[in-house]
Design brief:
Blueprint: H1 4-11, E1 13-19, H2 26-34, E2 38-43, H3 61-66, E3 69-70, H4 83-99, E4 103-108, H5 111-119, H6 129-142, H7 144-154, H8 156-161, H9 167-180, E5 197-204, H10 208-225, H11 227-236, H12 252-260, H13 265-287, E6 294-296, H14 301-310, E7 313-314, E8 317-318
């Protein structure tokens, strides 16, 4: 007879977490292994926004027909979508997907989404629309440098982690302080995996030179597909640095160039490539901090399939360990 602990474990929903840096090859590997077996919960802080298609490398319609995707195009680009929003949405989707006999597959590259889902969300207070609007109006009037100096005064720890150009996160940090009277960094995150969901955590990695080459090719492809026209349309409807969506790499470089009035498209492209490579390095540093993660090269589909099978994940239905 099984113990109560075993019974609780058997009732847990299982989910596969698949992460890796930008351009590592998540989409191709996902299509090869998970078509027909999974539904994807997108853990991408840019793909949540409507109208940001090319720069966010959203999956195309063919891919979305092949594997159902969730949490794509769920906000307008001027609206806020926090890590807490993502966790709540993912927590609701995991049992829903499992109930259909599919594998909940959480995949993307936004590190703080993964951290809060796997470890549990921050205890910081939820966003308040009135205070958020007040902070954003102050930043619009006084500038991002003022906002970052304000953050340095109230929370040097957070200020050291957040770039002056990341207006969205600076704004959120000031909002948290005004809501709670406490520095945002004082709200701790757990360092232990939550135990109410059974996560199988897989990371994808490539040698640095290989990844750098793929990043360059991806950015070139984005420009070929019309990234410049996408940016022009966004700016024509009022996009500026106060829009959360416009803090993303591939978008904010255009805003910076527009502000300076000096950068060419070639310079912007090089700046995006450089920023993306730096971001990929930070992503890998973060992903390697998960002790429960198994890393694979994206081409090692046999190794990934074998590991999933060991963990009780069957790619034609979701099977709980017995």
């Amino acid at each position: 007879m099984r113990s109560n602990t075993q019974k609780r474990a058997a009732r847990k929903n299982k989910a596969v977490v698949l992460f890796g840096p930008t351009a590592v090859g998540k989409t191709a590997m996902t299509e090869e292994l998970f078509s027909g077996s999974a539904e994807i919960i997108s853990a991408d802080s840019v793909q949540v926004y409507r109208l940001l298609d090319i720069g966010s490398a959203k999956p195309d319609e063919r891919m979305r027909r092949l594997i159902p995707h969730h949490l794509i195009d769920v906000r307008d680009p001027w609206e806020q979508y926090t890590a807490g929003d993502f966790v709540r949405d993912a927590e609701a989707l995991i049992p829903e997907i499992a109930s259909r006999g599919h594998i909940p597959l959480i995949t993307g590259g936004t590190a703080y989404y993964f951290r809060q889902l796997l470890m549990g969300p921050s205890s910081a207070p939820p966003s308040d629309p009135v205070i958020r609007q007040s902070v954003q109006e102050e930043i619009a009037a006084r500038g991002k440098e003022w906002a970052h100096r304000t953050l340095e005064e109230i929370d040097p720890v957070s200020a050291s982690r957040i770039s002056v150009n990341d207006v969205y996160r600076v704004s959120r940090a000031i909002e948290v302080y005004r809501l709670s009277g406490r520095p945002p960094s004082s709200f701790p995150l757990s360092n232990e995996l939550r135990d109410d969901i059974s996560f199988v955590v897989i990371g994808l990695s490539r040698p640095k030179a290989e990844l750098d080459e793929r990043i360059s090719a991806r950015v070139e492809e984005m420009f070929r597909l019309g990234l410049y026209d996408e940016i022009r349309h966004l700016m024509s409807i009022g996009a500026d640095e106060t829009w959360p969506a416009m803090q993303a790499i591939g978008y904010r470089e255009f805003l910076d160039a527009a502000a300076s009035g000096e950068a060419s498209l070639s310079w912007i492209k090089d700046d995006i490539i450089r920023a993306t490579r730096q971001y990929a390095k930070r992503q890998m540093t973060f992903f390697r901090s998960f002790s429960s993660c198994r890393f694979f090269h994206p081409s090692d589909t046999d190794g990934i399939l074998s590991y999933l099978t060991e963990q009780g994940i069957c790619l034609d239905h979701l099977r709980a360990d017995e």
